């Protein structure tokens, strides 16, 4: 009894900074430079920002580079939200219920009888999925067993968002409970499929609903006589030439682009005569190598699009890209940012490192590295427009969340390349 009392009393004497709490969720953004992670709790939709350092213990991952977007984690943090431990929550399944990337690719290429179910939400499936897969959201599968093949001996494979995603195991369990015996989960999931530069498809019905300025339709055929409404033309042969030239020049892959497109997350649909055309595969592999994150090939290609009498363009196909990035929550439009900077009526917070800032910054900007932001709130006014920027937008987005959680309602962030915007709009970096 006495020992318990001593322990209990000591807790009250312990500094709050030493009191640990456990938080967790799915990673939305991570900055390895600033050592900051933003994640969301899927159940409460609460967004949290935590910090880590060289002393943070990492479990179930070889390095912090394994903590990619959508990774599920648990972290032990102090009252300053500094993590002493971060654990990647891995899916646990028997080995005989798991299939790897190469084996799945071989089965697809071999044309084996196979049902592939995408256990992610429908919206994720729509913007890119493994060829031949069907949308089978795990949250809806139990009430929609008709999505599955009638023959319960058919091999079923479910996948979702990677090694920490619980949706493919959930779909596997539902299928097994309903009499399907030959069921496995592709646990590495869609991230590993994309990392292996295997083809990704989108369906025609989805593209037909998204023929707008926020989506890029890239026709890579040599001389198209008909084309999808709103498509832009860039032959695969020209992409190959650009790729070979930049390889010889050792031009950084992250800076390689088409038509000056800065948004590497832009949804790009590649169109050729069919989804297996050499032109489509070449273009997909090159753009993926150039670090475009949302590239997919149109399933069925132009042949199926025309046969189904879906919208066609008129006149001559465009050779200039008309794309507008869809603004994320809290992001400021480029024109509004440029006007505010030139007018000088905005507080600009630069969350890059001091070393980055020394190579060029906006005049009158305030440099507060992201990892130090919560220690310098006194420098950030709560009235008047405040705009945060970094190099390309990722750290600025985390800073926006941090300040929003601190009660700031007057903050926006630049979700774009500062260097390119400054160059295009005559803004001098000092």
TrEMBL record:
PROSITE patterns for the chain: RHODANESE_3 (PS50206)
Signal peptide extent: 1-20
Domain Rhodanese per the UniProt entry, residue ranges: 110-202, 211-314, 342-430
Keywords tagged on the record: Signal
Keyword Ribonucleoprotein (UniProt): no
PANTHER family noted in UniProt: FAD-DEPENDENT OXIDOREDUCTASE (PTHR43031), PYRIDINE NUCLEOTIDE-DISULPHIDE OXIDOREDUCTASE (PTHR43031:SF1)
Name of this chain's protein: Rhodanese-like domain-containing protein
Species whose genome carries this gene: Photobacterium lipolyticum
């Amino acid at each position: 009894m006495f020992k318990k009392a001593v322990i209990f009393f000591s807790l009250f004497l312990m500094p709050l900074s030493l009191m640990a709490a456990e938080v967790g969720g799915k990673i939305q953004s991570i900055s390895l430079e600033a050592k900051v992670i933003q994640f969301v709790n899927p159940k409460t939709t609460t967004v949290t920002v935590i910090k880590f350092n060289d002393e943070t213990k990492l479990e179930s991952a070889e390095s912090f580079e394994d903590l990619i977007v959508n990774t599920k984690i648990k972290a032990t943090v102090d009252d300053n939200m500094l993590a002493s431990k971060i654990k990647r929550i891995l899916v646990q399944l028997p080995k005989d219920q798991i299939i790897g990337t190469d084996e799945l690719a071989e089965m697809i290429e071999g044309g084996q009888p196979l049902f592939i179910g995408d256990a992610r939400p429908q919206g994720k499936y729509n913007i890119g999925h493994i060829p031949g897969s069907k949308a089978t959201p795990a949250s809806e599968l139990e009430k929609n067993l008709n999505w599955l093949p009638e023959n319960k001996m058919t091999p079923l494979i479910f996948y979702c968002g990677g090694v920490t995603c619980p949706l493919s195991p959930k779909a596997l369990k539902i299928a097994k409970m309903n009499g399907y015996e030959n069921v496995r989960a592709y646990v590495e999931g869609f991230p590993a499929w994309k990392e292996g530069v295997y083809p990704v498809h989108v369906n025609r019905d989805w593209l037909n609903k998204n023929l707008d300025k926020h989506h890029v339709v890239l026709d890579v055929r040599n001389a198209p006589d008909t084309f999808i409404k709103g498509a832009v033309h860039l032959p695969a042969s020209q992409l190959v030439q650009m790729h070979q030239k930049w390889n010889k020049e050792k031009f950084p892959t992250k800076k390689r682009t088409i038509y000056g497109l800065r948004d590497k997350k832009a949804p790009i649909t590649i169109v050729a005569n069919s989804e297996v055309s050499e032109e489509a595969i070449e273009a997909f592999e090159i753009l993926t190598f150039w670090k475009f994150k949302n590239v997919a090939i149109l399933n069925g290609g132009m042949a199926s699009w025309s046969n189904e009498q879906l919208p066609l363009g008129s006149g001559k196909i465009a050779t200039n890209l008309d794309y507008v990035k869809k603004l994320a929550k809290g992001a400021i439009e480029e024109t509004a940012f440029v006007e505010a900077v030139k007018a000088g009526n905005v507080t600009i917070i630069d969350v890059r490192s001091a070393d980055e800032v020394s190579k060029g910054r906006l005049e009158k900007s305030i440099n507060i590295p992201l990892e130090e932001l919560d220690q310098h709130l006194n420098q950030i006014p709560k009235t008047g427009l405040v705009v945060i920027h970094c190099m390309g937008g990722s750290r600025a987005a985390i800073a926006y969340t941090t300040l929003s959680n601190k009660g700031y309602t007057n903050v926006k962030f630049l979700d774009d390349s500062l260097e390119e915007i400054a160059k295009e709009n005559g803004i001098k970096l000092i």
